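Build the 3D complex.
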Amino acid sequence: MNLTELNRIATAMVAPGKGILAADESSGTIKKRFDAIGVESTEANRRDYREMLFRSKEAMSQYISGVILYDETIWQDAKDGTPLIRLIEESGALPGIKVDEGTQALPMCPGELVTVGLDKLAERLKKYYERGARFAKWRAVIDIGSGIPSMTAISVNAHALARYAALCQAAQIVPIVEPEVLMDGDHDIERCYEVTQRVLNKTFQELREQRVALEGMVLKPNMAISGKKCAKQASVEEVAEKTIRLLKACVPAAVPGIAFLSGGQSDEEATAHLNAMHKLGPLPWGLTFSYGRALQAAPQKAWSGKAENVAAGQRAFSHRARMNGLASKGEWQA
Ligand code: 13P
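Done.
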């Protein structure tokens, strides 16, 4: 393992003014997104859609540091035969790959999930590295509800995240460690804070025990935020203040960067929250976005599966990327 190189990549992923495009929707998830815009989820349509994003020159060259791909996409060619991964490299962004294989029910823990995909991961990472991937992603999912999460769910998911991260570093790939506490419930921001604190503490304990070099990873957390169905929604300032307090308490300064998931926040909320956090600096780590929905909802709508809308889709994507790029420096204005 070359830690200097891992650290260089991780630092580039969170460079000021730039962030990560999460375009790694599994076939099931992208189908849901396409259903919403009335587009059939065929391999060709998925290719055309992602090709549109990766050929968005303004967004890709100025505001996107890296792109997380799904397995299908990393092996796919653009319409003219250029591998899609080359389009990303040529734009100056780093290609990454989602390597978890989704979630399964966690035995003995009703309603809870564990992320799977460790079997043969070392071999898969080797192939992805040869193809050009320089970072990877693994997402653990923790739900908040009555009586959950259990410490069992937090523990097994943290253990798997650390196993994955160590395997990545051994393969010279920067791991994005993503323990996502869902914002779907009716819980308040205090409960989200408390659960996320337990999750992050356990995750870093496992990372240390499994000898993961913190200098060669990126953390992808949720923000401290009110559940979507909570009657009392915390303000932008409160989300920013509590999230920074939480991260300072839990994330060692050796970690080069933190890149948030959007998790179902609206496009503008996701931008406003990141921006507000940068007003609370200086911060010990790079702090930016790794958004899926909050970067793609607008271009998906503008595109709607029509070739004549490609330029409009690219404009919509570049706009959101620019807004989030500004937010990653605290320079965004509503
Ligand atoms: P969202 O920003 O839509 O939450 O997606 C980010 C991601 O990669 C989740 O794993």
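The CA atoms of residues 48 and 79 lie 8 Å apart.
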